[in-house]
């Protein structure tokens, strides 16, 4: 005999598992610090690549002028300025990533809690 | 209105029944349209500027995840730009990479906006994008719409200056490079449009979230006006050469399209709004509940008129035993009708 309540609950849970739940479950496998650390690390790598690209564009933009002035300018100061700019970009982007992924982790955990409650409810319906 | 709602229900039912086929077809059409737009506006590489390649790429996109449409579009743009000048392709590649690495990591769902914004620009209705994203998206969608706008301006700049760029010698690589970057950074039109669209997304989103009646309609009209004002002010201050009639007409069409979007996404009956207040141990709740307008689709009943009924009943009247059972069956089905 079909139990309607059980079927409805199972359908809802299956749809959750295939959709939103899939991402949430992969997040739920991590501890908070591991998940956020991994994502912030990825963010730092992405920011580094992006900064590198922008810096390369900046260099190519006036490559001849740069090569002419390379011996006249204070190279140490130039590198220092670039590094400070890089640090600022990476820190800002890292902080934004930290905030976004903290919120995502919190949301995923909350949603998974609901899912596990439903699982418990479902197992209760079999007793 | 009721017939429109019934039509919506039919569409929903139809989509629900044939989703497996409709989604790939829609993806195919979107990919085909995007690649066609790219090929017509750029079209510098002969090898990929033909219908067969376009169809193959669009077919592949129809079975792959949505993000691949953007991937193929970016690839086509880069190949066309490479055929024109390596430096232009390098600038475009850097732009795409920064977009993907810095922003689309956070909101992969918004990637489609980058594709739709340039298409809407080509169709002369770009103003629909910030309004629509303000209605269905988040304030972060402002970045997606801005990225789409930048891509459009890059493509339109290259397509408009192709002769100048290709006429330059290979030795002038640095000058070509500078020319593209200067045009992008110095394009006042692009900067004003990006600012107008970003502000419009945020304004529409903020008004849409307010607890006022008809917030969606007010949001889209308010957003459209603000968008128009910023674009025209930008034209006055920076001489961006926007067409006043074009902006007004495009905005009007965009509002109408946004209204159609609203009809499909959210349709509320404000005449039946209920305001209730209650409390629990920790909070006091002021709740405003607005019911959605729903109609049930009329069910069609097919009435079968049995042409043989007369002959059978006449046979029954004749009293033959063999047809008696069949005749009884038919009479029963007639009664049910």
Mean pLDDT of chain B: 83
- The low-confidence parts of chain A are none
Given helix and strand content, the structural type of chain A is mainly alpha
Largest sheet of chain A: none
End-to-end Cα distance of chain A: 15 Å
Task: Specify which chain pair forms the largest interface.
Answer: A-B, 18 and 13 residues
Strand count, sense and closure of the main sheet of chain B? 2 strands, antiparallel
Number of helices of chain B: 15
Radius of gyration of chain B: 29 Å
Sheet/helix structural class of chain B: mainly alpha
Q: What's the gist of this structure?
A:
With 127 residues, chain A is mainly α.
Explain the overall architecture.
The complex is a heterodimer of chains A (about 130) and B (about 325). With about 130 residues, chain A is mainly alpha-helical. Chain A has five helices and no strands. In chain A, helix 1 (about 5-20) crosses helix 2 (about 20-30). Chain B is mainly α and about 325 residues long. Chain B has helices at about 1-15, 20-40, 50-65, 65-85, 85-105, 110-120, 130-135, 140-160, 160-165, 175-185, 190-210, 215-240, 245-265, 310-320, 325-335, and strands at about 275-280, 285-290. In chain B, about 30% of the residues are buried. Mean pLDDT of chain B is about 85; it is low at about 320-335. The interface between A and B is medium-sized, with 18 and 13 residues.
How is the secondary structure organized here?
The complex is a heterodimer of chains A (127) and B (337).
Chain A lengths: L3 H15 L1 H9 L3 H30 L1 H7 L5 H52 L1
Helix pairs in contact in A: 1-2, 1-5, 2-5, 3-5
Chain B lengths: L1 H16 L1 H23 L9 H13 L3 H18 L1 H18 L7 H12 L5 H9 L4 H20 L1 H6 L5 H13 L2 H21 L6 H24 L5 H22 L8 E6 L4 E6 L19 H10 L5 H13 L1
Helix pairs in contact in B: 2-3, 2-4, 4-5, 4-6, 5-8, 5-10, 6-8, 7-11, 7-12, 7-13, 8-11, 11-12, 12-13, 14-15
């Amino acid at each position: 005999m079909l139990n309607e309540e059980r079927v409805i609950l199972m359908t809802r849970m299956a749809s959750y598992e295939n959709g939103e739940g899939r991402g949430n479950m992969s997040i739920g496998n991590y501890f908070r610090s591991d998940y956020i650390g991994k994502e912030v690390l990825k963010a730092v790598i992405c920011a580094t690549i992006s900064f590198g690209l922008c810096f390369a564009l900046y260099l190519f933009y006036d490559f001849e002028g740069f090569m002419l002035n390379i011996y006249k300018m204070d190279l140490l100061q130039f590198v220092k300025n670039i590094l400070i700019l890089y640090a600022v970009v990476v820190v800002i982007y890292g902080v934004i990533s930290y905030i976004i992924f903290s919120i995502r982790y919190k949301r995923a955990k909350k949603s998974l809690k609901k899912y596990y409650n439903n699982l418990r409810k479902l197992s209760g319906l079999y007793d | 209105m009721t017939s429109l709602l019934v039509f919506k229900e039919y569409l929903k039912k139809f989509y629900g029944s044939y989703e497996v086929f409709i989604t790939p077809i829609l993806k195919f059409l979107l990919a085909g349209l995007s690649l066609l737009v790219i090929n017509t506006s750029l079209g510098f590489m002969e090898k990929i500027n033909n219908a067969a390649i376009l169809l193959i790429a669009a077919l592949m996109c129809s079975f792959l995840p949505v993000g691949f449409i953007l991937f193929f579009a970016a690839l086509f743009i880069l190949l066309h730009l490479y055929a024109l000048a390596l430096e232009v392709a390098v600038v475009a590649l850097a732009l795409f990479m920064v977009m993907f690495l810095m922003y689309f990591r956070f909101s992969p769902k918004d990637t489609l906006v980058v594709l739709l914004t340039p298409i809407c620009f080509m169709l002369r209705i770009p103003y629909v994008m910030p309004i629509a994203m303000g209605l269905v998206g988040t304030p972060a969608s402002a970045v997606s719409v801005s990225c789409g706008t930048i891509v459009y301006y890059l493509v339109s700049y290259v397509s408009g200056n192709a002769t100048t760029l290709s006429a330059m010698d290979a030795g002038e690589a640095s000058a070509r490079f500078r020319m593209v970057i200067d045009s992008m950074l110095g394009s006042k039109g692009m900067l004003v449009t990006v600012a107008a669209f970003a502000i419009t997304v945020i304004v529409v989103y903020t008004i849409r979230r307010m607890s006022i009646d008809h917030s969606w309609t007010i949001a889209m009209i308010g957003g459209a006006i603000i968008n128009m004002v910023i674009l025209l002010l930008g034209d006055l201050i920076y001489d961006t050469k926007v067409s006043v009639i074009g902006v007004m007409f495009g905005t009007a069409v965009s509002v109408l399209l946004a209204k159609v979007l609203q009809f499909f996404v959210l349709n509320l009956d404000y005449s039946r709004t209920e305001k209730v207040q209650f409390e629990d141990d920790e909070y006091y709740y002021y709740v405003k509940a607005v019911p959605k307008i729903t109609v049930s689709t009329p069910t069609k009943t097919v009435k079968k008129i049995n042409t043989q009924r007369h002959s059978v009943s006449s046979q029954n009247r004749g009293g033959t035993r063999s047809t008696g059972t069949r005749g009884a069956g038919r009479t029963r089905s007639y009664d049910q009708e």
